[in-house]
Amino acid sequence: MNKLELMKMANEVRKGAITAVHSAKSGHPGGSLSAADIYTYLYFEEMNVDPKDPKKADRDRFVLSKGHTAPGYYATLANKGFFPVEDLTTLRKVGSYLQGHPDMKHIPGVDMSSGSLGQGISAAVGMAISAKLNDASYRVYTLLGDGEIQEGQVWEAAMLAGHRKLDNLVVIVDNNNLQIDGTVEEVNSPYPIDKKFEAFNFHVINIDGHDFDAIDAAFKEAREIKGQPTAIIAKTVKGKGVSFMENQVSWHGSAPNDEQYAVAMADLEKVGEALCQK
Q: Against a cut of 0.85, is the pTM above it?
Protein backbone atom coordinates (compact mmCIF):
# COMPACT_ATOMS: atom_id res chain seq x y z
CA MET A 1 0.00 0.00 0.00
CA ASN A 2 1.13 3.56 -0.60
CA LYS A 3 0.93 6.23 2.10
CA LEU A 4 -2.49 7.54 1.03
CA GLU A 5 -3.96 4.03 0.96
CA LEU A 6 -2.57 3.38 4.44
CA MET A 7 -4.11 6.61 5.73
CA LYS A 8 -7.48 5.64 4.26
CA MET A 9 -7.28 2.15 5.77
CA ALA A 10 -6.32 3.53 9.20
CA ASN A 11 -9.44 5.70 9.03
CA GLU A 12 -11.53 2.59 8.29
CA VAL A 13 -9.90 0.86 11.26
CA ARG A 14 -10.88 3.79 13.47
CA LYS A 15 -14.47 3.61 12.21
CA GLY A 16 -14.56 -0.10 12.93
CA ALA A 17 -13.21 0.34 16.45
CA ILE A 18 -15.73 3.05 17.32
CA THR A 19 -18.59 1.04 15.79
CA ALA A 20 -17.62 -2.04 17.80
CA VAL A 21 -17.35 -0.18 21.13
CA HIS A 22 -20.62 1.68 20.52
CA SER A 23 -22.40 -1.58 19.71
CA ALA A 24 -20.99 -3.30 22.80
CA LYS A 25 -21.73 -0.29 25.03
CA SER A 26 -18.34 -0.96 26.58
CA GLY A 27 -14.70 -1.24 25.61
CA HIS A 28 -11.60 0.86 25.09
CA PRO A 29 -11.76 3.42 22.27
CA GLY A 30 -8.95 5.82 23.26
CA GLY A 31 -6.01 3.47 22.92
CA SER A 32 -7.58 1.73 19.92
CA LEU A 33 -7.61 5.05 18.06
CA SER A 34 -4.08 6.04 19.09
CA ALA A 35 -2.70 2.72 17.80
CA ALA A 36 -4.74 2.55 14.57
CA ASP A 37 -1.91 3.77 12.33
CA ILE A 38 0.52 1.25 13.84
CA TYR A 39 -1.99 -1.59 13.47
CA THR A 40 -2.61 -0.58 9.87
CA TYR A 41 1.04 -0.42 8.91
CA LEU A 42 1.79 -3.78 10.52
CA TYR A 43 -1.02 -5.69 8.81
CA PHE A 44 -1.15 -3.94 5.45
CA GLU A 45 2.54 -3.29 4.83
CA GLU A 46 4.99 -4.86 7.27
CA MET A 47 3.92 -8.33 8.29
CA ASN A 48 3.91 -11.59 6.35
CA VAL A 49 0.39 -12.86 7.15
CA ASP A 50 -2.31 -14.49 5.04
CA PRO A 51 -6.00 -14.33 6.04
CA LYS A 52 -6.62 -17.45 3.94
CA ASP A 53 -4.02 -19.37 5.97
CA PRO A 54 -3.89 -17.74 9.43
CA LYS A 55 -1.78 -20.49 10.98
CA LYS A 56 0.86 -20.83 8.25
CA ALA A 57 4.18 -21.80 9.82
CA ASP A 58 6.31 -18.98 8.44
CA ARG A 59 3.87 -16.15 9.27
CA ASP A 60 5.09 -13.19 11.25
CA ARG A 61 3.68 -13.10 14.78
CA PHE A 62 1.92 -10.21 16.52
CA VAL A 63 1.11 -10.01 20.22
CA LEU A 64 -1.17 -7.22 21.46
CA SER A 65 0.32 -6.82 24.91
CA LYS A 66 -2.12 -4.00 25.74
CA GLY A 67 -4.98 -6.38 25.06
CA HIS A 68 -7.77 -4.04 26.12
CA THR A 69 -7.36 -2.11 22.84
CA ALA A 70 -8.78 -5.13 21.03
CA PRO A 71 -11.44 -3.07 19.19
CA GLY A 72 -8.74 -1.46 17.03
CA TYR A 73 -6.98 -4.80 16.59
CA TYR A 74 -10.20 -6.56 15.56
CA ALA A 75 -11.07 -3.77 13.11
CA THR A 76 -7.64 -4.25 11.52
CA LEU A 77 -7.99 -8.02 11.28
CA ALA A 78 -11.49 -7.67 9.81
CA ASN A 79 -10.40 -5.16 7.17
CA LYS A 80 -7.48 -7.45 6.30
CA GLY A 81 -9.95 -10.26 5.66
CA PHE A 82 -9.51 -12.58 8.65
CA PHE A 83 -13.24 -12.36 9.43
CA PRO A 84 -16.23 -10.24 8.28
CA VAL A 85 -16.22 -6.52 9.12
CA GLU A 86 -19.92 -6.91 9.99
CA ASP A 87 -18.94 -9.10 12.96
CA LEU A 88 -17.37 -6.11 14.72
CA THR A 89 -20.84 -5.18 16.00
CA THR A 90 -20.90 -8.42 18.02
CA LEU A 91 -18.00 -7.25 20.25
CA ARG A 92 -18.40 -8.37 23.87
CA LYS A 93 -21.85 -9.88 23.24
CA VAL A 94 -22.90 -13.27 24.56
CA GLY A 95 -21.98 -15.97 22.06
CA SER A 96 -19.61 -13.76 20.05
CA TYR A 97 -16.06 -14.90 19.35
CA LEU A 98 -14.96 -11.25 19.62
CA GLN A 99 -14.37 -11.04 23.34
CA GLY A 100 -13.24 -7.93 25.20
CA HIS A 101 -9.65 -9.14 24.98
CA PRO A 102 -7.90 -11.14 22.23
CA ASP A 103 -8.51 -14.91 22.28
CA MET A 104 -6.18 -17.07 20.17
CA LYS A 105 -8.49 -20.08 20.40
CA HIS A 106 -11.47 -18.47 18.70
CA ILE A 107 -10.37 -15.42 16.69
CA PRO A 108 -8.70 -16.00 13.31
CA GLY A 109 -5.38 -14.18 13.07
CA VAL A 110 -4.78 -13.81 16.81
CA ASP A 111 -1.47 -15.43 17.82
CA MET A 112 -1.68 -14.87 21.58
CA SER A 113 -4.45 -14.39 24.12
CA SER A 114 -3.70 -11.23 26.08
CA GLY A 115 -5.18 -8.70 28.45
CA SER A 116 -3.26 -9.19 31.69
CA LEU A 117 -0.99 -6.19 31.32
CA GLY A 118 2.74 -6.80 31.12
CA GLN A 119 2.48 -10.40 29.96
CA GLY A 120 2.22 -10.05 26.19
CA ILE A 121 5.81 -8.96 25.66
CA SER A 122 7.00 -12.07 27.50
CA ALA A 123 5.07 -14.27 25.08
CA ALA A 124 6.53 -12.31 22.16
CA VAL A 125 10.06 -12.82 23.48
CA GLY A 126 9.35 -16.55 23.74
CA MET A 127 8.15 -16.63 20.13
CA ALA A 128 11.27 -14.78 18.97
CA ILE A 129 13.52 -17.21 20.85
CA SER A 130 11.62 -20.13 19.29
CA ALA A 131 12.26 -18.70 15.82
CA LYS A 132 15.98 -18.45 16.58
CA LEU A 133 16.16 -22.01 17.96
CA ASN A 134 14.34 -23.36 14.90
CA ASP A 135 16.23 -21.19 12.40
CA ALA A 136 12.83 -19.87 11.28
CA SER A 137 12.45 -16.73 9.19
CA TYR A 138 9.44 -15.16 10.87
CA ARG A 139 9.60 -11.91 12.81
CA VAL A 140 7.73 -11.06 16.01
CA TYR A 141 6.00 -7.78 16.84
CA THR A 142 4.36 -6.70 20.08
CA LEU A 143 2.46 -3.52 20.97
CA LEU A 144 2.59 -2.19 24.53
CA GLY A 145 0.90 0.74 26.24
CA ASP A 146 2.99 3.38 28.00
CA GLY A 147 1.00 2.78 31.18
CA GLU A 148 1.55 -0.95 30.75
CA ILE A 149 5.33 -0.57 30.90
CA GLN A 150 4.95 0.32 34.59
CA GLU A 151 4.67 -3.48 35.01
CA GLY A 152 7.89 -5.12 36.17
CA GLN A 153 7.41 -8.17 33.93
CA VAL A 154 7.92 -5.92 30.89
CA TRP A 155 11.48 -5.22 31.97
CA GLU A 156 12.23 -8.86 32.80
CA ALA A 157 11.21 -9.69 29.23
CA ALA A 158 13.24 -6.78 27.86
CA MET A 159 16.30 -7.96 29.77
CA LEU A 160 16.04 -11.42 28.23
CA ALA A 161 15.39 -10.04 24.74
CA GLY A 162 18.51 -7.90 24.91
CA HIS A 163 20.56 -10.70 26.39
CA ARG A 164 19.50 -13.11 23.64
CA LYS A 165 20.15 -10.49 20.91
CA LEU A 166 16.68 -11.01 19.44
CA ASP A 167 17.00 -8.99 16.24
CA ASN A 168 13.80 -10.69 14.99
CA LEU A 169 11.76 -8.86 17.68
CA VAL A 170 10.20 -5.41 17.43
CA VAL A 171 8.59 -3.89 20.53
CA ILE A 172 6.30 -0.91 19.87
CA VAL A 173 5.23 1.38 22.72
CA ASP A 174 2.04 3.36 22.08
CA ASN A 175 3.10 6.49 23.95
CA ASN A 176 -0.17 8.44 24.16
CA ASN A 177 0.74 9.61 27.70
CA LEU A 178 -2.64 8.65 29.22
CA GLN A 179 -3.72 5.62 31.22
CA ILE A 180 -6.93 4.81 33.06
CA ASP A 181 -6.15 7.01 36.09
CA GLY A 182 -4.55 10.01 34.36
CA THR A 183 -1.27 10.91 32.73
CA VAL A 184 1.51 8.35 32.93
CA GLU A 185 3.73 10.91 34.68
CA GLU A 186 1.20 11.39 37.45
CA VAL A 187 0.54 7.70 38.00
CA ASN A 188 4.07 6.28 37.82
CA SER A 189 6.34 7.92 35.26
CA PRO A 190 8.14 5.55 32.87
CA TYR A 191 10.14 8.37 31.29
CA PRO A 192 12.63 8.41 29.67
CA ILE A 193 11.24 5.36 27.89
CA ASP A 194 13.90 5.32 25.17
CA LYS A 195 16.81 5.35 27.63
CA LYS A 196 15.30 2.46 29.59
CA PHE A 197 15.09 0.24 26.51
CA GLU A 198 18.61 1.28 25.49
CA ALA A 199 19.81 0.15 28.92
CA PHE A 200 18.37 -3.29 28.14
CA ASN A 201 20.39 -3.47 24.90
CA PHE A 202 17.64 -2.46 22.50
CA HIS A 203 18.07 -0.43 19.34
CA VAL A 204 15.59 2.42 19.94
CA ILE A 205 13.72 4.57 17.42
CA ASN A 206 11.51 7.51 18.47
CA ILE A 207 8.75 8.46 16.02
CA ASP A 208 5.47 10.28 15.52
CA GLY A 209 3.09 7.32 15.62
CA HIS A 210 0.64 9.00 13.23
CA ASP A 211 3.17 9.80 10.48
CA PHE A 212 3.25 6.94 7.97
CA ASP A 213 6.58 8.10 6.51
CA ALA A 214 8.13 7.90 9.99
CA ILE A 215 6.44 4.57 10.72
CA ASP A 216 7.67 3.15 7.41
CA ALA A 217 11.23 4.33 8.01
CA ALA A 218 11.27 2.91 11.54
CA PHE A 219 10.16 -0.59 10.56
CA LYS A 220 12.58 -0.63 7.62
CA GLU A 221 15.39 0.41 9.97
CA ALA A 222 14.42 -2.34 12.42
CA ARG A 223 14.86 -4.95 9.67
CA GLU A 224 18.46 -3.82 9.14
CA ILE A 225 19.48 -4.08 12.81
CA LYS A 226 21.53 -7.15 13.68
CA GLY A 227 22.29 -8.48 17.15
CA GLN A 228 19.73 -6.34 18.99
CA PRO A 229 15.95 -6.23 19.39
CA THR A 230 14.32 -2.95 18.34
CA ALA A 231 11.99 -0.74 20.39
CA ILE A 232 9.90 1.80 18.49
CA ILE A 233 8.57 4.51 20.82
CA ALA A 234 5.56 5.93 18.98
CA LYS A 235 4.34 9.31 20.25
CA THR A 236 0.58 9.27 19.70
CA VAL A 237 -2.66 11.04 20.60
CA LYS A 238 -5.16 9.07 22.65
CA GLY A 239 -8.52 9.11 20.86
CA LYS A 240 -6.89 10.24 17.60
CA GLY A 241 -9.36 11.19 14.86
CA VAL A 242 -12.42 11.80 17.05
CA SER A 243 -12.64 15.45 18.13
CA PHE A 244 -14.09 15.00 21.61
CA MET A 245 -11.98 11.95 22.47
CA GLU A 246 -8.53 13.33 21.63
CA ASN A 247 -6.26 13.60 24.70
CA GLN A 248 -9.19 12.94 27.05
CA VAL A 249 -8.42 10.30 29.68
CA SER A 250 -12.16 9.71 30.22
CA TRP A 251 -12.25 7.89 26.86
CA HIS A 252 -9.74 5.25 27.97
CA GLY A 253 -12.52 2.77 28.68
CA SER A 254 -15.87 4.43 27.92
CA ALA A 255 -18.31 3.75 25.10
CA PRO A 256 -19.97 6.56 23.14
CA ASN A 257 -23.75 6.91 23.36
CA ASP A 258 -25.82 7.24 20.17
CA GLU A 259 -25.33 11.00 19.87
CA GLN A 260 -21.60 10.77 20.53
CA TYR A 261 -21.29 7.89 18.08
CA ALA A 262 -22.89 10.02 15.37
CA VAL A 263 -20.42 12.85 16.02
CA ALA A 264 -17.46 10.44 16.07
CA MET A 265 -18.43 8.82 12.77
CA ALA A 266 -19.03 12.25 11.21
CA ASP A 267 -15.50 13.28 12.29
CA LEU A 268 -14.03 10.17 10.68
CA GLU A 269 -16.16 10.58 7.54
CA LYS A 270 -14.69 14.08 7.15
CA VAL A 271 -11.19 12.65 7.43
CA GLY A 272 -12.04 10.05 4.80
CA GLU A 273 -13.51 12.65 2.45
CA ALA A 274 -10.42 14.84 2.79
CA LEU A 275 -8.19 11.86 1.97
CA CYS A 276 -10.25 11.14 -1.14
CA GLN A 277 -9.53 14.67 -2.40
CA LYS A 278 -5.76 14.00 -2.33
A: yes
